[in-house]
Structures are given as structure tokens and as C-alpha cells.
TrEMBL record:
Protein name as catalogued: 4-hydroxy-3-methoxy-5-polyprenylbenzoate decarboxylase
GO cellular component terms attached to this protein's record: extrinsic component of mitochondrial inner membrane
Membrane-topology descriptor: Peripheral membrane protein
Species assigned in the record: Dissoconium aciculare CBS 342.82
Binding site for Zn(2+): 166-167, 170, 182
Family listed: Belongs to the COQ4 family.
Length: 291
């Protein structure tokens, strides 16, 4: 059999297998002109080819620029199906608080979160820590993109909830938005949620400096895996009801250890570098004076 005949036979075999799939899947695979109607406001139905292209394009784009939240969001949605976001929904349905969240469908926005009131809460409360973290990092609750590419409305909400509560995870751990801190949070979230996007985001570790990579692998990755596995599902936290809870109490209840303060570590390293530089300059000046 020639190479051409072999290719044709293989293509025919593949086509026959496709014809054996349910009609709705065949339509989604082959007809972009016969696109289904949106299932909720903003929904963009995708066929399998489009979903694959979205996953690949957003993966490369977010690696090139890890601050492109729109690409990271698209990557998360493109890779969440067919299993992972469904697993999260089942985990929420199996939990009393998770079921209430799915029933109420609260949203975390600047309208639902009164940041002025949160700033007045007692020190070390969840709400105060959340507002302080937003202020320190220069972000708002409205910086999270709306879900567009997940077909099931309730699963779309699950992904939206994960996205909007991401900053609370930052707040109770104290990890900053810088790449090193974001990678630690993504590693924690992967161990806790199994969402592929959180694992794929870890490829950005190549962008870290050598000392940052060493610190990530020796300190923050072990912390993330250990705590992500042992902690309760963070999606089952009704954050709106925990705003006056002490951060240490909530971390203890969830089974999350506070990681080493990354900002403080980086600050001490900068101070040490300045001190070493000043010492070298002093030695050099003294030597020049002797000469």
C-alpha cells in the first residue's frame, strides 16, 4: 500500500469514528455556521477545534506575558472541560456551604464589597486583610474577567466564583501579585482544585531569576503542595460570611499554614545587597586613599 493510500485509509477510518459520535457533538465539531445559541449573557459557544485553538493560543500568550489576565482566564476556561470544572461543581454540591453558594450565586465586585467598611474592620480580620491586600497590590474586585467559554451556566458560575475568590486566597496567605507569589498561589490552587490552568501557569517559573527559582522550589512549592492537598476546598468558603473572622482562625479551620513572608524576604535581600555594595565601596575608597 502506498503512503497516499495509507493516509486515505486512516482518514476514512477517523471519519467513520466521528460519524459514530452523537449528532450534537458532530455539529459542534464541524459546523461553525450552525453555532448554538448562548446559554447565558456573554457566553460564547465553541466547537472542539476552536476550544483547542483557544487553549494553545492563550497558553503561549500567557507564558509570554503572565500579566495578561484575559489570556490566563481564557486558558482556564478552555482547559476546564470536560472534567475539572464538573469535579469542582460536584465537590460544592457535596458540601453544605458549597450548596448554599451555588444556590445564592453571590458575586464579588466593588458593589457587593464595601471596601470602605472593610478597611474599618478590626486588625487581622479577613475583610480587613482583603481590603489591605487590594490596596497594597493596586487591584480591585472588578479586575476579574467574566466567564465566557464554559457552556453549562452553573459550571460557568463555579469558574467565576473561583476567579473572584482568588484574591481572598492571596489575602489570607499574604502572597503578593508578583510572579513569584502568583506561582505559589497557582501551585496551591492546583493541589486544591486540580484545574489544569493552575498547573500550566507554573511554566512561567522559567521567567524567575536563579535565586527566585531556588526559593520557589525549596520553600514555596513544597508549601503549596502540602497545604493545597491538606486544606479544605477553598471554593466551599462563603467568604462574604467570613469577613469579620480572624485570619488565623480561618486558616486554622481550613488547614492552611501561613507561608514565609515573601515581601519581607525580598526586602531583606535588597537591604543586604545595598549593605554589601556600600561595604565594597568603602573598601575600594579606603584602598584608593592608601594608594
Amino acid at each position: 500500500m502506498s503512503a497516499l493510500e495509507s493516509t486515505a485509509t486512516s482518514s476514512l477510518r477517523t471519519f467513520r469514528r466521528i460519524l459514530q459520535t452523537p449528532p450534537d457533538i458532530r455539529t459542534r465539531c464541524f459546523s461553525v455556521l450552525n453555532r448554538p445559541q448562548p446559554n447565558y449573557p456573554g457566553h460564547v459557544p465553541l466547537n472542539l477545534i476552536e476550544r483547542g485553538a483557544l487553549a494553545i493560543g492563550s497558553a503561549f500568550g500567557s507564558l509570554k506575558n503572565p500579566y495578561r489576565h484575559d489570556l490566563i482566564a481564557a486558558l482556564g476556561e478552555a482547559t476546564a472541560k470536560p472534567y475539572f470544572v464538573s469535579r469542582l461543581r460536584r465537590a460544592m454540591l457535596a458540601n453544605p456551604t458549597g450548596r448554599r453558594i451555588l444556590k445564592d450565586k453571590p458575586r464579588i465586585t466593588s458593589k457587593s464589597m464595601d471596601l470602605e467598611k472593610l478597611r474599618l474592620l478590626p486588625e487581622n480580620t479577613v475583610g480587613r486583610a482583603y481590603a489591605a491586600w487590594l490596596d497594597r497590590e493596586g487591584v480591585t474586585p472588578d479586575t476579574r474577567d467574566n466567564v465566557r467559554y464554559i457552556d453549562d451556566p452553573e459550571e460557568a458560575y463555579v469558574m467565576q466564583r473561583y476567579r473572584e475568590t482568588h484574591d481572598f486566597t492571596h489575602a489570607i496567605t499574604g502572597l503578593p501579585v508578583i510572579i513569584e507569589g502568583e506561582l505559589a498561589i497557582k501551585a496551591f490552587e492546583f493541589a486544591n482544585t486540580l484545574l489544569p490552568m493552575t498547573a500550566l501557569s507554573l511554566v512561567a517559573v522559567v521567567r524567575l531569576k536563579a535565586i527566585e527559582r531556588e526559593r520557589f522550589f525549596s520553600t514555596y512549592l513544597p508549601w503549596a503542595i502540602r497545604n493545597g492537598v491538606q486544606a479544605e476546598e477553598v471554593l466551599n468558603v462563603y467568604w462574604e460570611e467570613e469577613l469579620e473572622t480572624d485570619v488565623d482562625v480561618l486558616r486554622s479551620r481550613l488547614g492552611i499554614e501561613k507561608p514565609p513572608d515573601l515581601r519581607e524576604i525580598r526586602k531583606k535581600l535588597r537591604e543586604q545587597k545595598r549593605a554589601d555594595k556600600a561595604s565594597r565601596e568603602t573598601v575600594t575608597n579606603a584602598a584608593d586613599g592608601v594608594v
